[in-house]
């Protein structure tokens, strides 16, 4: 599930997105009573970080790719390696 919320629970604007769930690499099967995975994009954080609509589009795209990578089991170091190539 993809969700847009105004800002994180702590009301900061530091976090652009969040993956909530069990990565594919950490689960035996899907749908056995767990809540569905969620990717949250924080609207106000993106607006504060971007100066124009083109930058906003790019940052939302980068955030979604980053959080989807967490779904597939990549941690921040893995994501950084992929982004450098």
Characterize the biggest β-sheet: 3 strands, mixed
List the helices and strands in order. EEEHHH
* Backbone structural class: alpha+beta
Shape: globular
Q: For the terminal residues, how far apart are their CA atoms?
A: 28 Å
Low-confidence stretches: none
Q: Strand order across the biggest sheet? A: 1-3-2
The helical percent reads: 40-55%
As a percent range, the share of strand residues is: 15-25%
Radius of gyration: 14 Å
* pLDDT averaged over residues: 91
Would you count the extended β strands for me? Answer: 3
Q: How many DSSP helices? A: 3
Structural summary, described in words:
The protein is α+β, with helices and mostly antiparallel strands. It contains 3 helices and 3 strands, in the order E-E-E-H-H-H. The protein has helices spanning 43-49, 53-71, 76-84; strands spanning 2-5, 17-20, 38-42. Strands 1-3-2 form a 3-stranded mixed β-sheet. The longest helix has 19 residues, at 53-71. The protein starts with a strand and ends with a helix.
Q: Which terms would index this structure?
A:
globular; alpha+beta; 85 residues; 3-stranded mixed beta sheet
Which helices and strands occur, and which strands form pairs?
Elements: E1 2-5, E2 17-20, E3 38-42, H1 43-49, H2 53-71, H3 76-84
Parallel strand pairs: 1-3
Antiparallel strand pairs: 2-3
Q: Short description, anyone?
A:
It is built from three helices and three strands.
